[in-house]
Amino acid sequence: MLKSKTFLKKTRAGGVMKIVREHYLRDDIGCGAPGCMACGGAHEGPVLESQPQDPASSLCPWPHYLMPDTNVLLHQIDVLEDPAIRNVIVLQTVLQEVRNRSAPVYKRIRDVTNNQEKHFYTFTNEHHRETYVEQKQGENANDRNDRAIRVAAKWYNEHLKKMSAENQLQVIFITNDRKNKEKAVEEGIPAFTCEEYVKSLTANPELIDRLACLSEEGNEIESGKIIFSEHLPLSKLQQGIKSGTYLQGTFRASRENYLEATVWIHGDTEENKEILLQGLKHLNRAIHEDIVAVELLSKSQWVAPSSVVLHDEGQNEDVEKEEERERMLKAAVNEKMLKPTGRVVGIIKRNWRPYCGMLSKSDIKESRRHLFTPADRRIPRIRIETRQASTLEGRRIIVAIDGWPRNSRYPNGHFVKNLGEVGEKETETEVLLLEHDVPHQPFSQAVLSFLPKMPWSITEKDMKNREDLRHLCVCSVDPPGCTDIDDALHCRELENGNLEVGVHIADVSHFIRPGNALDQESARRGTTVYLCEKRIDMVPELLSSNLCSLRCNVDRLAFSCIWEMNHSAEILKTRFTKSVINSRASLTYAEAQMKIDSATMNDAITTSLRRLNKLAKILKKGRIEKGALTLSSPEVRFHMDSETHDPIDLQTKELRETNSMVEEFMLLANISVAKKIHEEFSEHALLRKHPAPPPSNYEILVKAAKSKNLEIKTDTAKSLAESLDRAESPTFPYLNTLLRILATRCMMQAVYFCSGMDNDFHHYGLASPIYTHFTSPIRRYADIIVHRLLAVAIGADCTYPDLTDKHKLADICKNLNFRHKMAQYAQRASVAFHTQLFFKSKGIVSEEAYILFVRKNAIVVLIPKYGLEGTVFFEEKDRPKPRLIYDDEVPSLKIEDTVFHIFDKVKVKIMLDSSNLQHQKIRMSLIEPQIPGIGIPTDISNTDLDEPERKPLR
Amino acid sequence: MAGLELLSDQGYRVDGRRAGELRKIQARMGVFAQADGSAYIEQGNTKALAVVYGPHEIRGSRARALPDRALVNCQYSSATFSTGERKRRPHGDRKSCEMGLQLRQTFEAAILTQLHPRSQIDIYVQVLQADGGTYAACVNAATLAVLDAGIPMRDFVCACSAGFVDGTALADLSHVEEAAGGPQLALALLPASGQIALLEMDSRLHEDHLDQVLEAAAQAARDVHTLLDRVVRQHVREATISLGD
Ligand SMILES: [Zn+2]
């Protein structure tokens, strides 16, 4: 087996260490062209086409393969991803360089290579006997790699000639490096720059738009005035950071003002944690999320954050005007307001991604240069070159940034993809998924290959370490139309008079084995995302809606948590086991409620449900006594038209007893499991905590209640819960709900964490000392990890290294917390979009509303009928400003002669504002009480529902 | 930035081998005339020398003698220059003792010790250069040396390591692959019967994958056997020619 290999040693010297590595050269590596006799089909996986027909190029009309160099792959990946570009040879040398330089591009190129239709072939040239080159004396690694690429290109052309001389199959070398190209041509290799080649594709003129525009360094000085100061090289930045001259941090652009940003300094410094940047020149081409180095300005130059809202609009390329605007920001301010101010001196790491947005067509006809306005206001506008401006107008498109030269007001970029008409449901859904970074591509073949083969049935091997519980009368209770049933329940009386209660959870970790592609993809997605009319699954449908879903009348694998309880719901015994169940019924909440309520029904399922319901009530009471919070937030549901899928009615979710029955047992199971896994793995249990909010968070709630002569105590969760219960007003029944909504806004975010990395486990909202997620493994990845931990704890499955590595676990938690947050924002954005559609069809509506907050120049109201929240502004651009007096203590806002307090009842007019196509919004204006001079405003903006966050007041 | 890619999508490892391929093996028997048996082996850049004395009378305390079989005494050492970083290892450090013990276990299972009761067989192995799979190289060198000494064995003992990367089992790990920290397994096999003389695993491996990795190691050990068998036959042929002169 070793005979076919020549043997060669490569020595890499570094310091005193002498490392000798073997490097085997082979002659069994195929060229990837099918039908090549010389290689004899030695290649596996995706291969090239034997007769590549397209694209038709005027430069090389004969059939050809492309061979790009590293920089082309790195910068022109958008071109390479285009369906028109096929039959590309990716050299191992190139791929390794890409891997070291950009992880995202590396991933993209791998995805392209795995796509059979693209015919990309990876040639392992470094291990091929005839294409391996050794580094020469005095040659640096880059030059050596360039030479290796040329050697491979030359080898290919000679090799293909051998295959068939008559059809002139060629390999074309694509490089943007002038010297490298010249050398290649000298050596007889057909070579073009990426631009030359793409422009020669006469049949695909649209491809030119996707070319990244990379200005050559030399050009910069010639054209136009330098606006920005130079970015310092990385080595200087690192030196500066070490010596303390510069600070490293994450750049966060302001949503409200494009001339302002803050930098969050990394590390534990207490002082100067947040540095303010103001003005284009100080922002110095940094883009939201970039890691930058900043220099702190002297105190005399410090400024205060401006309260002005400034959006970059119009075709404004004039830098002088910008400077004027900047001066405007620096109005005289109190010295106390001054913040540490700095300027960006260099970029440590760019965090660019493709951005969704719309084209602002240039005013100049025939112009090919246009500005692109990203949907995210924190991203600057981007200049792109396109010939299809008129087709792209009014469409949502994706654009990538290529660079930002020193003499350019805006960054340069290129067009990537047309998502579709603005306002179309598919387009908007795509946009909100992209903007919230929700992975939503169909599952790849690699992932699907780990699914069980159908028809699937339970084998004897599956029964290992598993209990047969098919005889139990188990049933599930879920919302109507639920196809991913995670949980099922049972309850029966034991011979000793006690009750046995079982919570049975889909055994997803049986199907998703650690480390494989399916597991990695689920871990990446982290959660299933539920939008108004779409579900983006975390695991493939075969699992989510079939094999894992605990449907009735089929055998399903489960992970069961079984308690023995007495009739006062005290747990006497807890055990966990993997099991097989056969659910007797899949009920909706309403169906289950009906069974419990109708006296005539006495079947096994109904008795089981009644017992569960009784226990749940006791459990809930106990929990509330301990101080668990019951907070309401209006949840809106849309009734969809069955044909057009347009929302026709809004409805707030109705809660039944059975909802809380299921919830109660899920909580109990989660707590029991959390205790068990923490007992077994004190250092690496995955848990969920909910920190208590700092007292200052409650200020607004206490003040608001006080204005209604009610007292809210916030020292403990229990006193908060009790005082909320007591806060009733006979004349104002909705007040209690409003208070609870406000209380929700004071809370902190619950998060996943690894027990070995933290000491505070407390779950404030549930008043439980320990908590985790066990009950929804189909739609949450955290639960899968918890299942694995629990399975190891009870000896039902074996462990693997990553499971007991607390740093890996902490990384998983970090991703899950991010995904959950993003899923939540995406969900809200989806509700917001459907609310817009609803009001678009409904026209202008007047509704009753309650004031939730008062702001300096606006009130935030809640419309109970729709569960909709919005802001009513009192200032308009072109009208005289009304007299506004804001009182922070009460809090109240006096407009002319009318005073507004929190919880006041008002009447508002609701309508859709489409004046800004990209940011359509629901607009609200005050009808009652009438304020002279305010009237009914016509063109003021309102709650911006496009924004991912509806920020609670803190 | 990005860690080392141990297995490319095209199925090649860092040094250009495919998953199941061994490194180049070169071996010679009878390298020292003074010893009863000796052998030298190169598995890639891992180089080991084995010397065998015996069977002979028990040295030292007679009490160590076993009434029914021979005592197998194994000693392992590694040259100070064997690794990239020169490190002086005191004689009899923990690692050497452990390795000696493992070798002893391995060879007690393979040598027909009951044929030489109350006697002793000494196996000395020295690693001259270490580049992964030292245990396997030691076993393979020692097997050849024992054969060279003419000590009867049940069968060859052939050893090989295996690891697990991205759902694929890799045979015969190099130092780079071992250093990556994944699960690794060392297997010593009696190829004819398929019996396992020694199996050792570092780090954790999911049970689901154990069979796959074990099979990869076993297959590699069988491949080692094919090569060693060729070396032995070549050696015997040369020996008979020189005798015939
Ligand atoms: Zn070929």
UniProtKB/TrEMBL annotation, chain A:
It comes from the Eukaryota. Pfam families: OB_Dis3, PIN_4, RNB, Rrp44_CSD1, Rrp44_S1. GO terms for molecular function: exonuclease activity. Residues 64-182 form the PIN domain. It is found in: Nucleus. Keywords: Exonuclease, Exosome, Hydrolase, Nuclease, Nucleus, RNA-binding, rRNA processing. The keyword Coiled coil does not apply. Residues 466-796 form the RNB domain. The keyword RNA-binding applies. PANTHER family: EXOSOME COMPLEX EXONUCLEASE RRP44, RIBONUCLEASE. Belongs to the RNR ribonuclease family. This is Exosome complex exonuclease RRP44. The gene is DIS3.
From TrEMBL, chain B:
InterPro entries: ExoRNase_PH_dom1, ExoRNase_PH_dom2, ExoRNase_PH_dom2_sf, PNPase/RNase_PH_dom_sf, Ribosomal_Su5_D2-typ_SF, RNase_PH. It holds the Pfam family RNase_PH. It comes from the Eukaryota. Residues 21-152, 155-219 form the Exoribonuclease phosphorolytic domain. Belongs to the RNase PH family. This is Exosome complex component RRP41.
